[in-house]
């Protein structure tokens, strides 16, 4: 097995992206979350590189790439275009896409836009809130509709919006990036999981604070509808941590029910950063699923 650990750079347009390449086999691209960078995949990378050619890159504005400007708006469509450009630049052909959180959402959007580039999708807890509400805060009509159809979902999402997204956004607006990252990470991971986060991992979150600020204060989450999900033809598995907060579990289950043939897989002893908490289980899920396709 080829065992490369050095970080390379790839110019896509006028932006330079850091990436690592490791292993041999079918190409697999790892797409990290907003408060992460390519270091997020270090626990998983060597395990899957035994079977796949793994491309692990840092998204636009993520460490060690050039950070976002103070007034930048970080929009999802740009990340989709970046990922398309990376796949084409490295001549990877059809790839196994693996994404966590917002990175999983990027993968889902790419599969909708360019299914010819995607062999399989493995999505760790994509924040597709629009499966239930088109935006946070929601419009009154949407609240009333969800109240009668799925009151448990409504409570979980509103709790996340009021307890995490709202306070984190306010902290970013006040210029307190450290508080914003702390609030956001605690909300998406849960108190118990956040208490176990290492100092090095918290520093990784802070290294990417500007990127997350540009996303949260900018264009925000895109709308991805039930019809969009039903139109996905790529073999898909959705991974969620057994300890993940309730709102994300509901989103995963909803997507799995809508995407034709999709699998809803619960990974034990894991929260939102599924592959970091239980890399062995995620690696096994990837090996089994991707080898089938």
Give the secondary structure arrangement, pairings included:
Blueprint (H helix, E strand, L loop, with lengths): L7 E5 L2 E8 L3 E6 L13 H4 L3 E6 L18 H14 L5 E6 L1 H12 L4 E7 L15 H10 L1 H23 L3 H13 L1 H5 L3 H9 L1 H8 L9 H5 L5 E6 L4 H13 L4 E5 L6 H4 L1 H14 L1
Parallel strand pairs: 3-4, 3-5, 5-6, 6-7, 7-8
Antiparallel strand pairs: 1-2, 2-4
Helix pairs in contact: 2-3, 4-5, 5-6, 6-9
H and E order: EEEHEHEHEHHHHHHHEHEHH
What is the molecular shape?
globular
Q: In terms of quaternary structure, what is this?
A: single chain
Number of strands: 8
Report the biggest beta sheet as strand number plus sense, adding barrel if it closes: 8 strands, mixed
The DSSP helix count reads 13
The N- and C-terminal alpha carbons lie at a distance of 22 Å
Beta-strand residue fraction: 15-25%
The class by helix and strand makeup works out as alpha/beta
Radius of gyration: 18 Å
| Percent in helix | 40-55%
Averaged pLDDT: 92
Explain what this protein looks like in three dimensions:
The protein has 293 residues and is an alpha/beta fold. Helices cover 46% and strands 17% of the residues. The chain has helices spanning 45-48, 76-89, 102-113, 140-149, 151-173, 177-189, 191-195, 199-207, 209-216, 226-230, 246-258, 274-277, 279-292; strands at residues 8-12, 15-22, 26-31, 52-57, 95-100, 118-124, 236-241, 263-267. Strands 1-2-4-3-5-6-7-8 form an eight-stranded mixed β-sheet, sandwiched between helices. β5, α3 (102-113) and β6 (118-124) form a beta-alpha-beta unit. The relative contact order is 0.15.
């Amino acid at each position: 097995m080829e065992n490369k650990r050095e970080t390379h750079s790839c110019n896509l347009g006028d932006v330079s992206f850091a990436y690592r390449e490791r292993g041999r086999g079918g190409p697999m691209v790892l797409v990290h979350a907003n408060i992460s960078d390519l270091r997020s995949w270090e626990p998983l990378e060597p395990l899957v590189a035994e079977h796949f050619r793994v491309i692990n890159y840092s998204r636009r504005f993520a460490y060690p790439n050039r950070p976002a400007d103070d007034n930048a708006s970080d929009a999802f469509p740009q990340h989709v275009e970046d990922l398309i450009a990376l796949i084409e630049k490295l001549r990877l052909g059809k790839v196994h896409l693996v994404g966590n959180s917002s990175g999983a959402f990027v993968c889902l959007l790419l599969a909708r836009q360019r299914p010819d580039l995607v062999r399989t999708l493995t999505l760790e807890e994509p924040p597709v809130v629009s499966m239930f509400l088109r935006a946070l805060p929601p419009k009154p009509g949407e609240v009333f509709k969800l109240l009668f159809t799925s009151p448990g979902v409504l409570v979980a999402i509103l709790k996340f919006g009021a307890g995490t997204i709202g306070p984190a956004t306010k902290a970013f607006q006040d210029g307190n990036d450290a508080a914003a990252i702390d609030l956001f990470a605690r909300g998406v991971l849960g108190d118990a999981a956040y208490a176990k986060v290492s100092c090095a991992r918290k520093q990784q979150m802070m290294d990417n604070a500007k990127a997350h600020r540009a996303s949260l204060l900018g264009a925000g989450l895109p709308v991805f509808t039930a019809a969009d999900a039903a139109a996905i033809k790529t073999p898909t598995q959705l991974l969620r941590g057994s300890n993940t907060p309730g709102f994300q579990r509901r989103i995963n289950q909803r997507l799995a029910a809508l995407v034709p043939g999709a699998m809803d897989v619960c990974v034990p002893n894991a929260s939102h950063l599924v592959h970091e908490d239980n890399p062995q289980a995620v690696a096994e899920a990837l090996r089994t699923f991707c080898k089938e396709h």
